[in-house]
Design a protein that fits this description.
Strand content: over 45%
Strand order of the largest sheet: 3-2-1-12-11-10-9-8-7-6-5-4
Radius of gyration: 19 Å
Low-confidence stretches: 1-16
Structural class: alpha+beta
Shape: globular
Largest sheet: 12 strands, antiparallel
Length: about 230
């Protein structure tokens, strides 16, 4: 069976599973091992330089406030929209959301599909966002996420995690592959290489590179942050 076929099979199995306490505990440990900013996070601002393929660099400034709202100052409207989307992604990954608020009883069910010490434990999650999301977890690290939306299914592979000083994890190298659910063909693929540094109390993004490929074409986006400082 192809990888996509296996994913679809696992997703269909998930709908028949009752909540499995062991699967829930494994997923909870992995979820709570993800590095997030706490409620005291003051927000930050920084200067940026955006480089897209062979186009001239574009400079500007960003601000993320205490409520995690993103604003971008830049004279180039297209660059402003791109940077807003990229920074919003950084912020979304670092936002704190209590586990029970997102996955508590009545909000999600967990199924244990497979346990493999080498490849990791495979868990299927049915929640408010999507039915049959599949996670592969090993030693509290999420290795892979797969989810289906109609005719398209995407798989996120975590290649490398940064371990922070308190033992939590930040995914810094990962790829997202989109497949046709009907044919199994790869529609597009994007590879991410993010960078973080600790500034005082918190880890902040210092930039990242994104390389996407679709229909035989490749595009590269590089975003660098400098002069990072917390809001007062």
């Amino acid at each position: 069976m192809s990888e996509v076929g296996e994913l679809l099979s696992s997703a269909s199995v998930a709908t028949a599973l009752a909540d499995d306490p062991k699967a829930r505990a494994i997923f909870r440990q992995a979820s709570e091992s993800r590095y997030v900013w706490d409620k005291r996070f003051p927000g930050f601002e920084a200067d940026f330089v955006l480089i897209r393929d062979r186009e001239p660099p574009v400079a500007g400034a960003i601000c993320v406030d205490r409520q995690m709202r993103v604003s971008v100052v830049c004279s180039d409207a297209t660059a402003r929209a791109i940077v807003h989307a990229e920074v919003s992604q950084f912020v979304a990954h670092r936002q704190m959301r209590p586990f029970d608020e997102a996955y508590g009883p009545g909000k999600a069910t967990f199924g244990l599909i497979q346990e493999d010490p080498a490849k990791g434990t495979e868990i299927v999650v049915n929640d408010e966002e999507a039915m049959g999301s599949r996670y592969r977890i090993r030693e509290r690290e999420i290795l892979q996420i797969s989810r289906s939306y109609g005719r398209v299914r995407f798989v996120t592979n975590h290649v490398k995690n940064l371990s922070t000083d308190d033992g939590r994890l930040i995914a810094v190298q990962y790829e997202i592959i989109y497949y046709s659910s009907e044919t199994g063909e790869i529609i597009s693929q994007t590879k991410f290489d993010d960078r973080y540094e600790k500034l005082g109390t918190y880890w902040l993004p210092t930039g990242g590179t994104k390389v996407g490929s679709a229909r035989g074409k490749t595009s590269t986006l590089e975003l660098n942050f400098t002069n990072l400082r917390y809001l007062k």
